[in-house]
Amino acid sequence: MKSIKRFDEFVEDKELKELDIFNFDSIPLSKLDKAYIDYEPLYNTADLVSLDEDYVFEEQKVNDDSIHSASDVVSLAMHKLKMQEFQIMVKSPNGVDYIEVKRLLEEYPDYLTMKMAMLIPNLKKNVDIITAFMDENGYFEAKGTTYKDKSGRFWLLLVFDPKKQESIKEMVLNYHKYAYHASPNYNAESIEKNGIIAKYAINPYMSNTQRVYLYLGNTNNSKYVSMMKSISKKIQRKNKKFAGDFIEYEIALEKLPNDVEFFVDIHGYGKDYIYTESDIPLSAIRDSEDKSY
Question: Which domain holds residue 269?
Fold first, then answer.
């Protein structure tokens, strides 16, 4: 499990705050008062499950990287930790909006992995407890930021991503022949020699796996261009010499190795944005084009 940040180590994520996931200022104090608790006593209480009248066992915690249903994780958080409905939001299947837990449980019970945001009070070891709980249930902490309520109490907004997602390989190959990957032009020499190598992501993404991000739509799409301009600006803030020049690679999906899997990019850009944890070999790169953003 990744190292856990203490409250005084948290750096406010302004982009996360601007999303206004919880519309914090509009939450009634009565709700906040009820939810401002320390989770430790609840977390350490044995969860006893009756199989029949004569046999009771304590549930064993298992830390694994298998796929965990968002609905199951939410239900566990509300049952074990006594979290209130308003404290948990999940990324909608449309890839843009965050929705209330009630909508998740009623409208999307069959969706497996979804990005999840939790609003928790900063008391004692709450960060440790929530992060450990999510780690045990297949999610890792991706981002965090702080809030202060009208009573002067501090809260943490923690965003969790699934460690492992369900593959969408069959859907991708059924409906698409090509995918596109844009890379800064300073990577061209390496790509021409080694293909596109899966790497750990830099901002604006966070991930727990090495990935290659791909786009399935028309790369002249205004939303795609807008996203690339945003990425270009972020790279320029770290690399002042970067002039915003990219190379866009067209990848023939049918030429990828059979063991390549595809997954939904849950960072909020929509259904045409996917990733793979596999390298893209040179033999699958069909064409390339210079682009500037």
Answer: 169-292
